[in-house]
Amino acid sequence: MASVQGCLLDLSGVLHVGSAPLPGAREAVSRLRRLPIGLRFLTNTSRTPHALLLAQMNQMGLDITAGELLTAPLATRLVLEHRGLRPYLLIHPHLRPDFAGLPRHRPNAVVVGDAGPYFSYQRLNCALRLLMEGAPLLAIAQNRYFMAADGLNLDAGAFVAGLEYAAGLRAEVIGKPAAAMFHAACAQLGLSPDQVVMVGDDVEADVLGALDAGLQAALVRTGKFRETDADQLGNGAPVYADVMDFVDHLEASL
Ligand SMILES: [Mg+2]
């Protein structure tokens, strides 16, 4: 591993699956904290608000603080505020606290997250009509699927692609693999991207996204990992058995 001064960890599939921490995850975080490096946790999860997500991590014994947790929904909110946009929210109702207080009358932007069972034909049609009138499409994330306790689940990506196709436009993706999310985390750490390593179980969103954004990256064989994912990387990034295996290698390289 080249010189590393900061580490970004994905959550789901790296530190936990569903409500259970992955083996070694708690100790891995503790050991990372003892290293002279900056630490941030970066997730595209768009079904759980920031405060609840933090509480869930802490309940699993994962030692994460509010300021260390960067979520794609919060990054999306910052974009809406910065551009003065009034969103039509195609999101899971649980995520509403992250968008509380934003103007919602006469929406002029469409925000899509992982609404899960709350995607409906009617709501997708409302979004389509706004897009056809010129509203931008902001995708909190466009992941294909994620691993939950009941198996693989469709993520927001399929719905983003459907709206892009129907309206004949491209979404602005806010979450990983978009560079903005990685660069925001590096800026928080006061480091340049090449000094920071991103660790994830999603070869596209976490690893290839981070590499494209100029970071170092590592893939773990947990969560949604498939053997074919490693083939996509070539020599671009190492693959570790799990987050503890990554920490072993990082410690040895410092
Ligand atoms: Mg993941």
What are the salient characteristics of this protein?
6-stranded parallel β-sheet; alpha/beta; Rossmann fold; 254 residues; 9 helices; globular; binds magnesium ion; 2 domains
Distance between the termini: 9 Å
- Give the C-alpha Rg: 18 Å
Stretches where pLDDT is under 50 for at least 5 consecutive residues are none
What overall form do the CA principal axes indicate? globular
Quote the CATH topology of the largest domain: Rossmann fold
Q: What composes the largest sheet?
A: 6 strands, parallel
Q: Strands of the biggest beta sheet: in what spatial order?
A: 5-4-1-12-13-14
Helix-residue proportion? 25-40%
What is the arithmetic mean of pLDDT?
94
| Secondary-structure element series | EEEHEHEHEEHEEEHEHEHEHEH
Strand content: 15-25%
Question: Count of DSSP E strands?
Answer: 14
CATH hierarchy: architecture of the largest domain: 3-Layer(aba) Sandwich
**Ligand types:** magnesium ion
In the CATH scheme, the class of the largest domain would be Alpha Beta
Structural class assignment: alpha/beta
Work out the count of structural domains. Answer: 2
Provide a count of the helices: 9
The CATH superfamily of the largest domain is identified as: HAD superfamily/HAD-like
